[in-house]
Amino acid sequence: MDYNNRYNKKQRNYSYSSDRNRRNNDGYKSAQAGQEGRAFVHAPYNFVPFSNTVLFPYASAEELPCHDKYDEKLHTGEIRVSLRAETPVFVSDGNNSFIKNGNGQLTIPGSTVKGMLRENAQILGFGLVSPGEDFDDYQIYYRAVAYEDKHYQDVIGYEQYNIDGSWYAAAKKVKGGYIKLEGDNYYIYPVKGEVKSIKRDEIKKELGIDVYPPIARYEKLNSGEYLLCPGKAPKGSPVYLFPAPDWSVKPEKVSDVDKISFMKDYEARRTVLKNKDFWTLPKKGAFKPIFFTKFDRHIFMGMTKFIRIGYKHKISEGLPKYDIKKGVPIDYPHALFGFSRGKSSYKSRVSVGDFCAPSGITEGNPQSVTLAEPKPSWYKGYIEGGNNYNADAFRLRGYKQYWLKPEEPGAAAANGNANMGSVMRPAPKDTIFTGTIRYSNLNDKELGLLLWSIRLNPGCFQSVGKGKPLGFARMAVDNVGLCAFDPKAAYSSLDGSPYNDISADVQKYIDAYNEAALGDGAKVSDDPGIQDFFYIRSEIKSGSEVSYMTIGNKATSTINEFQKAKGILPTIRKMREKQD
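Structure (tokenized):
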């Protein structure tokens, strides 16, 4: 397929290519399966690559259809859909139970279904991924344990010290301060003087305070000073004594980006942290002692002197770079589902109702499971070629998709971490959820893209709800009923329905998008990334190849695959080529 820049006036289709070719960074042929004594990198998810091309059917928002009238040249109607649970499905109400509507029926909210369809349309529609709109953009925090990272050394430096024959490191370029929420912003008031380090086994002798058991805490002393104890550590390791706060010093304002980066790091680690309030930011009216450093217009902060810092680059810098030379063109997904960009906004032309199970269908018995959360900090999985976010030319892999799996009811306490446990009461297998999706003023290609996002290809499945790594959430699309709305019939007669069943035309509209959206005779379905998408939505896999890597457990002699694994996560393309 030709990815060169092109401008097709006749079709009103604008397409811009990436300014760099996709690189062959799979690294699959390095240390993967087949090498004895080594674990290979694997996960229950993979990535459909971002396209080097984005399709812009509209040059600007002004070209989009209006919402206040029906255009006879465009399509308005509704799509009646049935989703059948191939494996148990769980959509949480926030309290470990399935969401129910006012009639007590198990319900998948329309917002959940709409989010699923929008992501499908983003892939099938060659959509533009927008930071702040499609995902939160921030710097990922990390700690260079091996002390070999030049960027890390530039930010904080470090010094090594020996405790009972073991070597540790502490940052040199950090300061102590007090962080406080004032209005809507956080400020750090640097301490006057120095933060004093005191060994844990000497703190009782010096201050008469026992820091054992060594739980993470901070407390105000009678002197007005604050003692900061970062938690479990050897007896000879330090706790910190902060001078009393002085609110007259000029504070450092924490930017929104730095606040989001800190909180994203906290949320990623929250399930394994003890005394969670100690590690998060203070609430309004409160303050706490903290370590911080300033580097390259950013503030990095933490509750220990050896703090975590952000990679050089934000997540968004790993997106493809498109040469958009003029105006603010609109892609297919944003044209369908709406957007808000500064002063420009547009309402969705697609509305999705709740999908409900029949009355009398009840949720199953509670199941204790471990729902691990994928973390973008795992660059062997999230970044092409195994680079990290300090690489100046790193590129994100793409849209995360979970492999379809048989139900794994025995995969409850993965890695033996009780802190990560959850309870689910899923809807049983074969439960059917029905709902209605309404659309207005869509052209042939837009309606085709919407229908394709709903139905997918034959043999493919949708994924809805939690528990995907354990085989939950797989749903078959049993019915797609397309009904065209006739405005004249709606207002000229009291008898009959203004909707005409045109379900026989579903494939016709899908073909209209598939065969014409790209132009030049190219089919969307021939694009390798689209083929990757349909592969991961149709293949049902099991075994270690599509499971989380183990952390390691001495009691069960479980290998720590995160430390032992070599190479990087193989791409979907490599996996389907291997199967072929």
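DSSP finds 13 helices and 30 strands in the chain. The two ends are 21 Å apart (CA to CA).
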